[in-house]
Amino acid sequence: MPKRAKERSALEVQRLVAPGFHAVGVVAGLHLRVKPTGARSWILRATVGDLRRDIGLGAYPDVTLAQARDKAREAREAIVGGTDPVHERQERESALRAAQAKAMTFDQATTAYIESQETAWKNPKSAQQWTNSLNRYAFPVIGKMHVGDVELAHILKILEPIWKDKTVTATRVRGRIEKVLNWAKGRGHRTGDNPAAWKGNLEAQLAQPQKITAAVHHAALPLGEVSAFMHRLRGAEGMGARALEFLILTAARSGEARGATWAEIDLDAKVWTVPASRMKMKKEHRVPLSEAAIKLLRKLPRVAGTDLVFPSPRNLQLSDMTLTAVLRRLDVPAVPHGFRSTFRDWASERTSYPRDAAEMALAHAIGDKVEAAYRRGDLFEKRRKMMDDWARFCSQIASVRATVLVLARSA
After folding, report:
1. Of the residues 34, 122, 126, 283, which has the maximum number of CB atoms within 10 A of its CB?
2. DSSP alpha helices (H): ranges in 7-125?
3. 58 - beta bridge partners?
4. What does DSSP assign to residue 146?
5. Residue 34's beta-bridge partner residues?
6. Sheet holding 40-48, edge to edge
7. Is the torsion defined by CA of 335, 336, 338, 339 positive or negative?
8. What string of DSSP letters covers 288-308?
9. What is the pLDDT of residues 376-397, one digit of tens each?
């Protein structure tokens, strides 16, 4: 039992300024510690089991003498009851720090997930699309919630108002929430099942998306209207019109055509080699260029300050809306991507070229993994003939009109 010190009054305690430990009495082991800096705090010196403990009870004068004595009594009672106050406090602080480390709101998790994935996304606009959709539909409900607290009821509150009228958007939002929550679980920020998962979960709560709305395909121009449209397109001015013409002649995706550089094109060999980094399938793609495509390219100016074949007025890559605007000006109810469907229809309905040649022209994956493993070539020469025939098909109306004019002069 420690020696009981003389009881000090509040005024006496106030006058204690010498560095060291000053016993204040009443409760055995209670001291006012004065540091060389002048800072003062309450310390209870006690034996806990086989250990000597200095138990902090708070700073003076924030904790008064009376309060310090009360805290010291509580600590001694805990020790008598078999508790180590220091160890108990350390456990509480450790649990608090662990909880703080795990605590992350859904909007914070979304930002972290996007940062971890955006370098691998093929479309540079994906990050903005994710942010916009979740900010509009998910954040108002769960944005400031801890990801560990998000439950099925919250997901339904987000999805049900838009599931029938905005089904495509709703399914994307659901999938994005699911990915964010999966990421959060993997990082230790939540446990348990994912409330945004479809299979075995939301499929029992919401109607199947495909039963609500029919699939919407890219608007494409019918085969019978292609040649007439190409004649009008060649009469349109602007880099957007030329890029759209090139896209049609090569059956390329919009981004591939708009991002084409002169370094990728060999005019003499009549080949456009699109690097893997710019392809959807992340595989280099060789495109045989028809005479019509070569003629188009040779007429284009080489713009100083950029290697882009189709630069914008500020020497940047054209936007997809630039090509769409060309179609709108020409009053054509189609989108740039739709011309790939038109090309595919032409190859199937008007030619005898192998299906694989058409699929390779579109840079689609061919067959299953086993078939792909055995296929080494890219049917390049067959595709060259096919693209020449496609170019002639696109130019048919112009040829017919030229013939009519010649006959008229002869008469």
Report:
1. 34
2. 10-14, 65-80, 85-102, 106-117
3. 42
4. B
5. 20, 40
6. 20-23, 30-34, 40-48, 51-60
7. positive
8. EPPHHHHHHHHHS---TT--B
9. 567 899 999 999 999 999 998 5
